[in-house]
Amino acid sequence: METITKAWYFAQSGQRKQRSVELMKEHRQQFGTSGNCFDLAIWFMHELSQEGITSYAVGHDLKTPDAHVAVVTLNEEGHRYFCDLGDQWIQPILIEKNRDSYCEDALEGFVTGGRIKVDAGSHEVQFSYLRPNGKVSRQKFDLEPIPYDQLLDAANHSQSLLRHPLVEMRLFQPGEVLHWEFDRWRSFISSNQGLVDESKLINNQEWAERIHTRTGMAQDLVYRSLDIYSQL
Description:
This is Acetyltransferase. A four-stranded antiparallel beta sheet has the order 1-2-3-4, with helices on one face. Strands 8-9-10-11 form a four-stranded antiparallel beta sheet, covered by helices on one side. The protein contains six helices and eleven strands. The relative contact order is 0.16. It is globular. By secondary structure, the chain is an alpha+beta fold.
C-alpha cells in the first residue's frame, strides 16, 4: 500500500481522481506501483469478480482525511470474511459470530507486528490491535455495503488529497510476516518483538533508493513523488 503513486499521477496527468483497474495494472507493470486503500480495494474486488466471488466494500470516515476502506468477501455458504489490503492484513478473517470457527480471542497470523481481536455484530465489526509493547488500538467498520457510485465518489475525494508520503508492505521470513513502513521520512520494521527504526537518511534521493530497494517501485518515480510531497 502506498500514496507515492497519487502524487506522481497528479503531476503526470493533472488529474486527482481514482484510476481505473486497467490503468493501475499498467502502472504496476511499468513502474511496480500499487496504490492506496481505495486503489487496492477496487482492484481486489475486480479480481474477485473475475473468479466469481461475491465481495463488497466497507469503510469508515469516507470523504475525510481519515477515510479507510476494506473488502468483505462471501464464501460458498455466504459467510463473511474481512480482507484489508490497505492495512496489509496477512489473510482474511471470519466475521460471522454464530459460526463454530469464529473466535474472540487475540489471534496471531492475521496482522503484522501484533495480534487481533474481533468483535463482530450483524451490522458492524470492531477490531482491536494488540501490539507487543502493550498498546491497543481499535478500528470499527460499518458492514453495510458501500454502493459502488458512493465508493468511487469517496475514492475520487481521497485521490485529491495530498497529505504525506506513506508506504507499507509485508516482509516474509520463516515463521513470521514482518511489516515495513515508510511514513513521512521515517522508516521502520514491526515484528512480534516490537518496532525497530531504520537509519535516517539525508535527502529524497536516498529515500527513493531505499523505497525502491524495499518495494521494487521505479526509483525515479518515487523521487519525483517525494519532491512533490516535500513542497506541500
